[in-house]
Amino acid sequence: MDQQLVPVLAAVQDFLQREHGLWIDGGSRPALSGRRSEVRNPASGAVIASVAAGDAADADAAVQSAQRAFASGAWSGLRPAERERILLRLADLLEAHAEELAQLETLNQGKSIQLARAIEVGGSIEFVRYMAGWATKITGETMEVSIPAPPGARFTAYTRREPIGVAVGIVPWNFPLMIAVWKLVPALAAGCSVVLKPASETPLTALRLAELAQQAGVPPGVVNVVTGPGASVGQALAGHPLVGKVSFTGSTEVGKTVGHAALDNMTRLGLELGGKNPMLVLADADIERAAEGALLGAFLNQGQVCAAASRLYVHRSKFQALTEALAEAIAGMRLGPGLDLNARVNPLVSQRQQQAVCRLLERSRAQGARALTGGGAAALPGYFVQPTLLVDVAPDNVAAREEIFGPVLAAVPFDSVDEAVALANDTRYGLTASLWTQDLSAALNIVPRIQAGTVWVNSHIPLDPGLPFGGYKESGIGREFGKGAVESFTEIKSVCIAH
Question: Which of 209, 219, 321, 439 has the most CB atoms lying inside 10 A of its own CB?
């Protein structure tokens, strides 16, 4: 099948040709060091743009800008309804620039333009509109207290939620725009000022998001973006004494270093980390539906999804039928650039990620796993890995233990529900899981036994802005989405009045 390439908009070409700086105090500025870094297209490896390469000094400048803006009350002092209206205008601007943002994301991250349109941009717009409404719904409580002294005294007590101050959002490279929005908008709804640190590989849409936020009416200094290496910029932001909260999404290993840096100042912390997510297919499951779910759950965004289904546990009676159907479907997936509407599998984000996935596949095969289809890098320009289905995967195989973050699915048979649950829980992670069955009683009995922050039944991967998202064990601390996302950017103050 021939390529069907989406033509690149003139607005996207113009944006790529800019000399992008850091976004601090309402405008673009170079890094203090003057250094810059290249941005590449994963489908070809070609340089498509360059951005300022910030460091710890630039991180400090951004935090100082955010702190001044917060202290001024230019945003934190607005009526909640005014913050809500500005955030709704931001959603409208994201919608007006939807195709531009989707193309930028595809060219920079590598994902399918259809995924960028529907999820990366479309999901972001829905999220902003949902979260904007919480700006007017932040509440405290009144309570009756039983303070015994002085005799005869009466007390009125209540709590209030106040914005935490400067919030830092550290954003990964798999969904750069959407996860930046997940960090930014709840913090803004709560009245905070924000510093975003996008991944070094995918900085472009965060910079455009900051421009659109200011165009929507967010005052200068309230939204700042510092591009640059995580080892310098990310650590400096996490450990900055003026930061009230750090919200990080990324690998568990990096999340631990961010957490240690924040702990020195008792900075509030939210961590959405790695996953090794199981998919359990019971004997009565609809095999055709389960196969479709596995293809989506494992290969969406080339498996570069923290919630991806990477371990497939199938009742032995259905194992051969399901793996054969999956192998045939996976082998027929067409590889190509994200702008190709006919491509089913797109490149990974970087050469480093491509090499990391291929090394894990080599280790897995050395430990006894067998690839029914795929198994390594594709012979194409850019950073492609063949979609891979592994079988003969022992419990201690790297494909069953480590987060691969690529288009790799490991399939394992089981004989009993107890065995399946034990296998699903045999991991240091606990982000998501899915259960496939037509037996409602079985589903309701098994769900509480699975150690994961989200358990889907007969689906895998869909998220909703109102449904809390986060993990057990080493998959993180705290939850994204819903009322709790906004409240996590607030402090609770107790007020007690004697009268």
Answer: 209
